[in-house]
What we know:
mainly alpha; single chain; about 65% helix; flat; 15 helices; ArtM/GltK/GlnP/TcyL/YhdX-like
Amino acid sequence: MNATTFQPIEPRPAPVNTEGPVAWIKTNLMGDWKTTLSTVLIGAVLLWYVPQIINWAFITASWRPDYNACSAEGVGACWGVISEKYRIILFGRYPYEEQWRPLIATTLLTGLLVVSCMRRFWRVWLPLLWLAVLAVFFMLMYGNVGGLTQVDTDRWGGLPLTILLSSLSLVMCFPIALLVALGRRSKLPAIRSFCTIYVELIRGVPLISVLFMASFMFPLFMPQGTQIDVLLRVLVGITLFAAAYMAEVIRGGLQAIPKGQVEAAATLGLSYWQTQRKIVLPQALAMVVPGIMNNFISTFKDTSLVTIVSLYELTGALKLGVNSDANWRPYIIEGYLFIALIYFVFCFSMSRYSRWVEKQVNKSKLR
Length: 367
């Protein structure tokens, strides 16, 4: 028998760590020479500008509501404009001594939106809760009941108006968009043509034109002596505008459903609406969650255009409160940054909620 010689195997390299901050930096910031060069250049720009921004925004900033202190040499940001004008920014032209009413109303409506986003509260009583909260909201804002003084809708403004317009328009536009999306795929020519004309007509003009038509042109077609509140007209305009865009998002999800599933449902004897409700719509809406949320965020920000019809939401209230005061007018940029922070908090929250919904609807694909 021939003796065999032991031949040791060359040692293999240690496995590369793929977890942790160091691994993330190597993969995403220093993957190759191009990525490394971009990281170095961007890092150099940040090292140059970020300290200056921090110095302007915090270190040398003035926090006192005194415009004389803000005009001193070497003073950075003047956050005193927020301390001085925050009430008119948040509540617009609402009477000063009655601003506790929009504060409570906005807190209730915001809490309702948060509750509506939680799955444990998706019960049959949730629509009734919406009706109750909206009734309390309008009672507090409008008054003329329970000893509250009447405040007309043209004096509503600031954050309450922004949240009211965005939340109601989004709630009302969704069923309209759903029906329009189904109508554009209908086999009935009249319904399909009507839905197509509606979508193309609304999408062919900017929102500012829709608001102008709803506020100034629509009353001309009403019977003599008929008056429609400007807030209602604006709400209808934003709702119809958002529904047209959302209908196209939902239609994209409907077209992504394989035709074989619809044919299989027909073979099982399901009606059209049973097929849509149990098979098509659950899958289609799950596919377009990012697009729907993108439309929600866009509508929330587009409420700033209602200033054209003399409704002063956040942006309009800022201009109303700061531009009208010559002493604080030079510091309006700080006011815009304050409003930008409010918009960012709401929009980022909606974005994170969208990610959560995506994970929930995609659980079935992970099985």
